[in-house]
Design goal:
This protein is α+β, with helices and mostly antiparallel strands. Helices cover 19% and strands 35% of the residues. It has one domain (2-260): Jelly Rolls (Sandwich). Strands 1-3-11-5-9-6 form a six-stranded mixed sheet. A four-stranded antiparallel sheet has the order 2-12-4-10, with no helix packed on it. Strand 7 (147-150) and strand 8 (153-160) form a beta hairpin. The N and C termini lie far apart (71 Å). The protein binds calcium ion (CA) (2 copies).
Length: 262
């Protein structure tokens, strides 16, 4: 009995840890400045299995239902991003279908307050009735709260004014088909709902990027939540791939070798 009684307590604390105080952030999800080796982050979980798909529709989506990762390029490059479900999390094993969107730009970083969907600025900057600020297939922005010199005391003066952080949409990829991610126009599904999805984004400019990884099962929003969500583990890998010119050269070299019988 005592073990059973513990369950809702743990779930409630998990709720507060993952939802009530969650802001856009990159803790444990920073790939750093990309070099020649691909980098993987394998210890993160996503709250809910529908967040990405839900952010493709007309009432936008909730940033809490996905995870933000970041990377930096110091020179133009093409970047491959892969998301693969793993065995972490409280949700049903083998069910999670990942998707991700890539954006230029970052959310607010410490010491500023993190952005969140229901800040005054966020609410003022998006259509009434939207579920959140997040958009999987378009540019979007999110606001934070003012940081005062003395925490929570407006009379102490403004240390960091609230502001919007802007995410400039570059592209996306989704596991599976419209049977799972829904009918929004222009979604690049990989056709096989197997918990794995990958895409390469060519010729990205130097700068800072955000990758939002979340679930691609649109219908799951009908059965998950509304306050406590199952979590799903996902391994995310990001790496620079050879520029098209270099790849073409490599391909040409291989072709010449084969023709020479090497
Ligand atoms: Ca939605
Ligand atoms: Ca797939």
């Amino acid at each position: 009995m005592s073990r059973i009684a513990l369950v809702p307590v743990l779930s409630l604390s998990a709720l507060f840890a993952s939802t009530a105080f969650a802001h856009v952030g990159y803790g444990g999800r920073d790939f750093g400045t990309l070099g020649s080796n691909a980098v993987s982050i394998t210890n993160q979980t996503v709250s809910g299995s529908f967040g990405w798909a839900d952010a493709t529709d007309s009432d936008w989506g909730d940033s809490h239902r996905g995870r933000f990762y970041r990377f930096t390029l110091t020179a133009p490059a093409s970047v491959a991003i892969t998301a693969q479900r793993n065995s972490l999390g409280s949700g049903t094993q083998g069910l999670f279908l990942p998707a991700f969107s890539l954006y230029r730009g970052l959310g607010q970083l410490a010491p500023e307050a993190g952005g969140h969907d229901f800040s005054d600025l966020s609410l003022a900057s998006r259509p009434v009735g939207t579920e959140g600020s997040t958009r999987a297939l378009a540019d979007w922005s999110i606001g934070n709260d003012t940081t005062y010199n003395v925490a929570g005391d407006p009379n102490s003066g403004v240390k960091y004014a609230a502001r919007l952080a802007y995410f400039t949409y570059i592209g996306h990829a989704a596991d599976g088909t419209s049977a799972n991610f829904g009918n929004a126009a222009g979604i690049n599904g990989d056709g096989v709902a197997d918990g794995f999805v990958t895409a390469t984004f060519a010729n990205l400019a130097a700068g800072d990027y955000s990758v939002w990884v979340a679930g691609a099962n649109y219908a799951a929003q009908q059965v998950e939540g509304p306050s406590i969500f199952p979590t799903y583990g996902v391994s995310v890998t990001v790496g620079v791939v050879p520029a098209p010119a270099a790849a073409a050269m490599l391909g040409l070299a291989g072709l010449l070798k084969r023709r020479r019988g090497a």
